[in-house]
Known about the structure:
Blueprint: E1 3-8, H1 18-23, E2 27-33, H2 37-47, E3 51-53, H3 56-60, E4 66-69, H4 76-85, E5 89-92, H5 100-113, E6 117-119, H6 127-137, E7 144-152, H7 159-167, H8 171-174, H9 184-194, E8 198-207, E9 226-235, E10 240-246, E11 254-261, E12 265-269, E13 272-276, E14 284-285, H10 287-290, H11 299-304, H12 334-337, H13 339-352, H14 360-378, E15 384-385
Parallel strand pairs: 1-2, 1-4, 2-3, 4-5, 5-6, 7-10
Antiparallel strand pairs: 7-11, 8-9, 8-15, 9-10, 11-12, 12-13, 13-14
Helix pairs in contact: 4-5, 5-14, 6-9, 9-14
Amino acid sequence: MGIELGICGAGAFAECFIPLFKAHPLVDRVVLCDLDAEKLRTKAEKFGIADTCPSLDQLCQSSVDAIAIITQHHLHGPQAVQALRSGKHVYSAVPSAISIEEMSALVHAVEQSGRTYMLGETSYYYPCTLYCRERFRQGDFGHVVYAEAEYYHDYVHGMYAVAQWRHGAEWEKYFGMPPFFYPTHSTSMVVSVTGAHVTHVSGMGFVDRHPDNLYARPDNVWKNPFSNETMLCKMSDGSVARISEFRRIGHPGTVGMRMYGTEASYEEQVNSQTWVTKDRATCMDLREELTCTAQPATEGQMAALTGSDGTHQSVSRVHPVQRLPAEFIGLPNGHNGAHQFLVDDFVRACALGEMPPNNVWDAARYLLPGLVAHQSALQGGVLIEVPDLGEAPGKGEGR
């Protein structure tokens, strides 16, 4: 028996997920929810959704078992808490919250309600993360000593339009959100590979110098001068990590990582992904293996997918597409192959009672280092301890 699922937020990003939730064999019914009545009507017609709801309040009072929250960043934490307290399982787009208090309330709501929470963190399923997680599981790194991860996204790559769409006439006041309020694409890569969490951070920020002066505006609601932020992290396993979140950078954009162990390492830059050993002759170029393409499933994968023809769009060789529902073949799969796995893991967790990856305790360990590092940066880089809200009960290996 499947679940009934409500999708709160019918914007552009939700369009990536509506077809996947609708197609999943363990989802019996999808209800679409948005405050904008015209948008709700249009999107329901576009995707063939028969049932709609005009507000999260009413969705929480409905018969749905779970709610996917795909709304504006600053709403995710409180909305997830509301849904959990109403007895619903919750899938949330990133970030999970924008303050330590909101994150703590979210963990508490999960613990009190006993419901499932999963963060839609795409980097967990990136090819490099999958590859490094398996090499780490096999012990190939030895002891990890240092890691780096970053999210480079200059605002000229579509972000002005996003800010204007989200905030309307007052968008300029909201433009300068601290980069470290959205660190999870970077932190999750390191944390999900090694299982270690950040214990202390020292943060530094680059005071924005762009001619538009949006960060330096006196009415900036975030009171944040930094367009780029970097933190040095002390990890619970004794290693060190460097995390960077840049919004003003001469770069095509990336979410990437490097990880160095006592026995071997993983390195990447633009157009380069390499498994590195102590012998140059045995270093491995991984670009072909880790590149995402709209490639046909292999013969073995097709057999595992009930013999249907078609493709899993935008996946790499390391993505385990054989475990996805056959109904996903040919459907959208954005963010380097992550979307189909996010949906499948969440739906299975709700329907089968499994603990999902990117659960609320993982989400806290992805988010809190950035929030604390921003405070450190405002204080000139002082070392600050990062609160830890624990880990999932009976934590084991992720799927």
